[in-house]
Amino acid sequence: MVSTGRRGAEAAGGRQREALMAGLGSGAAPRWWRRDADAARRRAAAAREAAAAAMLELDAALSDLPDAVAVAEERAEETAAAVARGGRAQHAASAPDSLTRDWRDLSAHADAVIGHYLQALSNHDADAATESGPARAATAELGRAADALREVLAQVLRFREQYGEALTAASSARAGATRTLSAARDAVAAARAALGEATAAGLADPALDAALAGARAAAARAEAELAARRAGAAGSAAEEARRTAASVAERARALPGRAADVRRGAASVHTRREALGTRHERLAPVMSELRRRYPLSAWADVERAPQRAAEALREVDAALAGLDGVLAAPVLDVPAAAALLAQVRTAAGRVDDEVRAATGRLEQLDAVAADPRALLGDVQRALVDARRFLAGLPEERARRFRRTFEELARRLPPLEEAARAERPDVGAVLREATSIERGLAGLVRTARAD
Questions:
Q1: What element of type H or E holds 320?
Q2: Cα–Cα distance between 450 and 446 in angstroms, integer?
Q3: pTM score, two decimals?
Q4: Model confidence over 56-110: pLDDT tens digits?
Q5: Of 7, 119, 232, 391, which has the maximum CB count within 10 A?
Q6: Checking DSSP bridges between strand 332-333 and strand 203-204, what pairing results, if any?
Q7: Cα dihedral sign for 50, 52, 53, 57?
Q8: What is the DSSP code (8-state) at residue 228?
């Protein structure tokens, strides 16, 4: 038994020596102890790859969760605030109270497991391990890390399933805010281009530059809110930026048309200025006739018509000079030119009003003096029309206005008596008739709007 064992050992030793000599001669066959180390290193590399694959899966499952959870929490806060104000909840899928707590625990656990995995990678370089002992240690530690990563992945998937509705709604809200922000950026770019075209055409509107700056600031605020995972605030700021920029672009594109309108209007008011001077000159004879034929009480309210018309005419001239200066500038400030044109027209309208008031008063007084009964007829017709209108209203509504109507109607007989006097005070008659007619018109207008 012993000799047999010795012969076997000697034969094995001979084979080992032959393998060693063959390896030294040709290098074709690895040493047995190298074969053992290579296998351990391959197992360590495989463990490293498996752990990396588990890490990739977990990272993919976690990638959008921080944003979704933050948005879900924001929506829950908005809903709670709306309910506290007495309103209705705006979000159909509000985050449960437990979502925040569960996410805090899960994310802390995931961070710890990922940290252990990264530490295992740092502790063991599977490719550099040349000894079987360290390679086996790497295999064991990386295997435990991979198992822990897979366990966290399962917890993440359960979390997604449990809070799926709230997370889906939050992801949709964030995606909506992102789309709105993209539209806002496009609108800002379009507004900038439209303003550039207007500037190249020699047109300007300083307010549009300020509005565009505001749109850009709102877009930047939306980006910051989105980065801070506040989708609601980001969407509101982005929509503000989009609306403002769209308005800027629209107004910038309208500048050429507005400039053309201002230039045409300027030519028109220059022509009108000549006519205003002629009309103003007619006031002097009209005022002379009023003084000569009627007492001051009949036309006291138009006594200063010539002075007021002259002041308005001076304003016309000053605004026209300013308008001409703006139109002659190298870059036309369109809003400034439009404002000056409006000022010219308003002042010109005041000149017309003063001339019309004085000439109209003379015509009215002449008509009353010639036939007082014609004026009475107008007042009587206004009373009849008002009475018929009230009669067509429901009784409850008509009752609210009947007293005012009766008070106005009681003023007609004294007016008729004053108008039929031998020497009527035409000024007093005209004022009273006008007052009654205006009162009736106001009554009907109020009753219609009631």
A1: helix 305-328
A2: 6
A3: 0.64
A4: 988 888 877 877 777 777 766 666 655 556 555 444 455 566 777 888 888 888 8
A5: 232
A6: parallel
A7: positive
A8: T
